[in-house]
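To whoever is on call:

I kicked off a structure prediction for a single chain this morning and the downstream step that reads the tokens threw a length-mismatch warning. I double-checked the sequence; it's 262 residues and nothing unusual in it as far as I can see. Pasting both halves so you can look.
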Amino acid sequence: MKTYPIFLINLDGSSARLHAAEKALKHSGRNYTRISAYDGRQVDPMTVDDYDAYGARGYMGRDLNGGEIGCYYSHIRAAKAFLETGAPFGLVLEDDMQPNSQAFELTQALIDWQNSVGTPDWYLANLAAHRLKITTDVTQIAAENMQATVCRGHYFPMRTTALLWTRQGAEEFLKVSLPMTCPVDNFARRWLTTIDKGITTTPALFTTTGAQSDIDTSRTTQKRGKQNRAAFCGFKKIRRMYGDKLRALRHKIRFTLRSRSK
């Protein structure tokens, strides 16, 4: 059985979170590569060349804060590290992840299933989604006494705690991820919902410890979602949400019709 590389995003100095994540990984007999997270907590986004403030206000209705910039860059670092391995699949974890008892085995089962049916037609699997909307069941996977359903995530889940990349997916992500106009989880939803290239599982294979994010906690007086709000911010949020849902519903219908015609 081929194994897949695991990457753990952790901020320098966050030793307690690293210890907790490392303990969970070692308990499951898994090796990992630590990704030093980008510390954006004291960064002024307006000084970041990759940040598009105009685009952020147009899409999100507000500016991003330094912590969100840091989280975004951290996932870019992880995707690059995965591609450097040459592996076909790579698992990226945030350091507040908590695997269920068969999370890594079920992840391998998902990869084995995909290898059995051919080249992936998806880019990214969200393995920590607890609220699924607008999905289509694709297959069942199992490991020991646990089972999970693999779903096409037409409306891609937001949580970025545990992400399984395909090689093509990570390559495409790096092509389109910049400039930044929204947090990385919003970007993943917009991107993958638009092209219908995301999958997920139910139940989630990973949960979170509930610890407050170190990367996305600003040391300034800025609060997430409150800084430099654009006009009609609430309207833009509704437009964003329902636009994605409408696209997802269209993809679900098309996916179902294609599946029935095979």
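Update from on-call: the warning came from a stale cache, not from the record. Cleared it. Sanity check on the structure: The CA atoms of residues 104 and 163 lie 12 Å apart.
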